[in-house]
Amino acid sequence: SRGLGDVYKRQELQANRIVIAALQQEAATSRPVISALQQPQARPYALAGTGTAARASGTIVLDRQQKQVVIVAQNLPELPSGQAYRLWAMPQNSKTPAYCGQFNTSPTGTVSTIWPAESAVCNGNPAQLLITAESATAPLVPQGELVMKTAG
Q1: Report field, pTM of the whole predicted structure over 0.85
Q2: If we measure between CA atoms, which residue out of 133, 126, 119, 118 comes closest to residue 56?
């Protein structure tokens, strides 16, 4: 039965290599997010879930110096194929939200992503940030369900 023990050890070793590779990939993906969160110009906004995403929570960080948006959230339901979450910034003294980008979650309901903030509103000092669930190809006007928002 020594041969069977060797087979199990090889399988366990292979399983461990797969887990290590996945963790290394996750760490590499998280490095830019962690770096952005540590920038002195970074401004965090706490997010709370609404409606069907009531259990969701997270943080958006606007890094004005690097002109980047960072989103870290959990318990955000995975969307059906063809849909995406969209981030909107509500400018001060305005009722028209500016589109800031779109993203999706992992199958476990988490998201940790970073992208350039091209809109001045998204990179500025918005009154409120909103996340909606939209068709990934819909016009850049919020029409879908509001799933997360900042206080305000």
Answers
A1: no
A2: 133
